[in-house]
Amino acid sequence: MHFAFPPRKTSNPPPYARASRSSNVRRKQLQLGGLIACGALVFLYLLTRLFSYASTRAPSGTPQAVIVTVFDPDMDQKYVDRIKENREYYARRHGYATFFPNSTDYDVDGSPQSWALIPAMRHAMSLNPYSTFFFHLSPHSLIMNPSLSIHSHIMAPKRLEALMLKDKPVVPPDSVIHTFSHLKGERVDLVLTQDGEGLCQESFILRQGDWAKFFLDSWFDPLYRSYNFQKAEGHALV
Fold first, then answer.
1. How far apart are CA 62 and CA 150, in angstroms?
2. With a cut of 70, which residues of the chain have pLDDT below it?
3. Do 198 and 191 meet the contact criterion of CB atoms below 8 Å apart?
4. Cβ–Cβ under 8 Å, residues 68 and 201
5. Cα–Cα distance between 101 and 124 in angstroms, integer?
6. What is the DSSP-derived secondary structure letter of residue 166?
7. Residues 155, 191: contact at Cβ < 8 Å?
8. Strands 198-207 and 133-137
9. Strand, helix or coil at 156?
10. HEC profile for the chain?
11. What is the pTM of this model?
12. Taken in order 215, 209, 155, 100, is the CA torsion positive or negative?
């Protein structure tokens, strides 16, 4: 029985059929929908940026700096009142805030109570999230020249660059760890004093930010507090 071969395909295929009117309308609808979706995404992005900027901007009247002094509840009350008056007068003069907790307000888990200055600084930062500088000052210190401000006399970038000790031993006179030799003032987040024996935690300034929180949390680590340093939190810095 003989079967015929299938017909050969023509070498001249018919032209493609013209798209129907409904498919053109559909394509235009999809394009328009895509443009509307992109526009909505751009609008939401700009709106999110606007609200995030508004939420991070400091409210009117926010103090630029906060002075933190931690008191021992066993101190003479007249002495405490005079120290507070010294801080408050300085703060009023420059529009700063003050924070005066007791050392017993914080649980240091059996360590010397002097460690309380660290959670006190963290507490001050949480109470004043929009303030820039936090100045810890020992209750045994006085502000002798209230005309000098923290933000301009100490923390202004150019002023910092003139004041900072560069390429100096952290623990004098011959520590192998030296301070930075090249550092811009705007990158300084911690200003710490130094005496003849080394770093001095009695007076220091922190700039608000993630690094400051990391620094305080690391400094207050239970491992450091368990070492029983001779000068407690002071030696922990070294």
1. 15
2. 1-23, 42-43, 45-56, 172-173, 197-198, 238
3. no
4. no
5. 9
6. -
7. yes
8. antiparallel
9. coil
10. CCCCCCCCCCCCCCCCCCCCHHHHHHHHHHHHHHHHHHHHHHHHHHHHHHHHHHHHCCCCCCCCEEEECCECCCCCHHHHHHHHHHHHHHHHHHCCEEECCEHHHCCCCCCCHHHHHHHHHHHHHHHCCCCCEEEEECCCCCCCCCCCCHHHHCCCHHHHHHHCCCCCECCCCCCCCECCCCCCHHHCCEEEEEECCEEEEEEEEEECCHHHHHHHHHHCCHHHHCCCCCCCHHHHHC
11. 0.72
12. negative
- Kindly state the tokens that stand for 100: 């005066």
Per-residue confidence (pLDDT) for residue 9, from 0 to 100: 59
The beta strand positions in the chain, using DSSP E, are 65-68, 97-99, 133-137, 190-195, 198-207
Distance CA 190, CA 238 (A): 14
Nearest one of 120, 112, 156 to 139, comparing CA atoms: 120
Residue 191 near residue 160, CB atoms below 8 Å: yes
